[in-house]
Automatic annotation (TrEMBL):
Transmembrane segments: 41-65
One Gene Ontology term of the molecular function aspect: O-acetyltransferase activity
Residues annotated as signal peptide: none
Source species: Morus notabilis
Top-level taxon: Eukaryota
UniProt similarity note: Belongs to the PC-esterase family. TBL subfamily.
Short name of any one Pfam family annotated for the protein: PMR5N
Any one annotated GO CC term: Golgi apparatus
Protein name stated in the entry: Uncharacterized protein
Trichome birefringence-like C-terminal domain location: 144-416
Membrane association type: Single-pass membrane protein
Keywords tagged on the record: Membrane, Signal-anchor, Transmembrane, Transmembrane helix
Trichome birefringence-like N-terminal domain location: 90-143
PANTHER family reported in the protein's UniProt record: OS01G0880400 PROTEIN, PROTEIN TRICHOME BIREFRINGENCE-LIKE 9-RELATED
Length: 421
């Protein structure tokens, strides 16, 4: 819709300038050549003629742009109606807003949720300040509806929700389970289907809410595309490759779902790729010199094609979460200082090439996909990271978030969008 609006503005803007010129040119011609006779009427006639011509042109352009005259709704915008229930003509971009203190938060206690992994439970790991758990995201033009767990559990009855991506995706998965568990009396009715514990390398975790016949699954696929073995005659430094033209081979497990939430981004770095001997490959050909940004774009194109052709978007609501801001500081971006309060400004952390690529690809897709554009809201939250209250206090962490915390808000937006949709 944004593109249309822009195009619309540009076209109509240009036409308006053009029309003004035509009208004044007409007047000019008349004035220059008809000076002898004061043909006021001719002047007016030429003016009206030009105006009519322009009106005609405008109408043509309008019908060209909106052939069906039906409102075009592009799915990538998550819009929300105001909390008071009025249908506002003005749309609300829920990702534009600010953090405000709210004593009614947090939404759950991680120590009472068996699915919040210890590494993210900052309070359990000795974090003393609790202010970071008491912030609500307030979109500029609307409110995110207050979490109504019973309503959500009803809506999700019999459904399968699937998260795919890296550890940030696992955090959102854990957060959603903890949020929903606050509405479940018998905690034992919620369990991992294989009895597995949450670990970093595990490829699949599935949690079942048996009372609601609801599944909330997580698949670890940090690149979304397929890791592969080294082709013959490759240089020695190549230890593995990433097939940018093929989806991860577990992708077939994701298709049969009602909600599908993707992310990828934190692993697309030289340290996690080239320095580990992992290089890009398309078809049979190694792409040794391909920049990471280009490769990420190719991987996203592969993902988009997969969604368009494999996922029934009549059934499945598809989401892609953009880059989750990190707050590494220092010259080499390797120091981590967790504040007590959010930053008042984004300090440039709201910009991300990863997110730009995701936005571009999603906007061009032929099927509805929702963007969870969390980059900007996270940029303020230098107070929300795990820091030294994670698995390993000697290695501070300014990428992952404490639970409860910022990922809960991603889920509030996800859930409100599901309730609206
Ligand atoms: C509902 O909220 C919107 C936006 O906050 C406001 O413009 C509108 O006047 C409100 N309507 C009522 C009936 O309170
Ligand atoms: C969370 O629950 C634990 C164990 O029940 C309790 O000791 C702790 O005080 C609770 N934390 C908060 C912030 O309420
Ligand atoms: C989805 O719905 C549309 C419109 O109702 C229909 O034309 C299309 O065939 C459906 N696609 C699938 C895969 O069911």
């Amino acid at each position: 819709m944004e593109i249309m609006r822009k195009l619309n503005q540009d076209l109509f803007g240009n036409l308006r300038i053009f029309c003004t010129r035509v009208v004044s040119l007409g007047n000019g011609i008349v004035r220059r050549y008809c000076k002898l006779w004061d043909f006021q009427s001719l002047n007016v006639a030429v003016g009206i003629g030009s105006l009519l011509f322009c009106l005609f042109a405008l109408v043509c352009v309008y019908f060209y742009l909106f052939p069906s005259l039906s409102p075009v709704r592009h799915s990538y915008e998550i819009v929300s109606t105001p909390r008071n229930g009025s249908i506002s003509a003005e749309k609300c971009n829920v990702f534009e807003g600010k953090w405000i203190q709210d004593e009614s938060y947090p939404l759950y206690n991680a120590s009472q949720c068996p699915f919040a992994e210890r590494g993210f439970s900052c309070l359990a790991n000795g974090r003393r300040d609790r202010g970071y758990t008491k912030w609500r995201w307030k979109p500029k033009k609307c409110d995110i509806p207050r979490l109504d767990v019973q309503k959500i559990l009803g809506k999700l009855y019999g459904k399968r929700v699937v998260f795919v991506g890296d550890s940030l995706s696992r955090t959102q998965w854990e957060s959603l389970i903890c949020m929903l568990m606050t509405g479940v009396d018998d905690k034992r009715s919620v369990y991992e289907v294989n009895g597995n514990k949450i670990t970093k390398q595990i490829r699949f975790l599935g949690v079942r809410f048996s009372t609601y016949n609801l599944r909330i699954d997580f698949y670890r696929s940090v690149f979304l595309v397929r890791p592969s073995s080294v082709p013959r005659r490759a240089p020695k430094r190549v230890k593995s490759t990433l097939r940018l033209d093929l989806m991860d081979d577990i992708s077939k497990e994701w298709i049969d779902s009602d909600v599908l939430v993707f992310n990828s981004g934190h692993w697309w770095t030289p340290t996690k790729l080239f320095e580990m001997g992992c290089y890009f490959q398309v078809g049979k050909s190694l792409k040794l010199g391909m920049p990471i940004n280009t490769a990420f774009r190719k991987a996203l194109d592969t993902w988009a094609y997969w969604v368009e052709n494999m996922v029934n978007t009549n059934r499945t609501s598809v989401f892609f979460r953009t880059f989750e801001s990190s707050h590494w500081g220092g010259k080499n971006r390797n120091t981590c200082k967790v504040n007590r309060r959010p930053w008042s400004r984004t300090n440039g952390r709201d910009r991300s090439k990863i997110s730009d690529n995701i936005v571009k690809v999603v906007k061009q897709m032929k099927v509805p996909v929702n963007l969870l554009h969390v980059t900007r809201m996270g940029a303020f939250r230098s107070d929300g990271h795990v820091g030294t209250w994670g698995d390993n206090p000697s290695v501070p962490d300014c990428s992952h978030w404490c639970l409860p915390g910022v990922p809960d808000v991603w889920n509030e937006i996800l859930l409100s969008s599901l309730l609206n949709g």
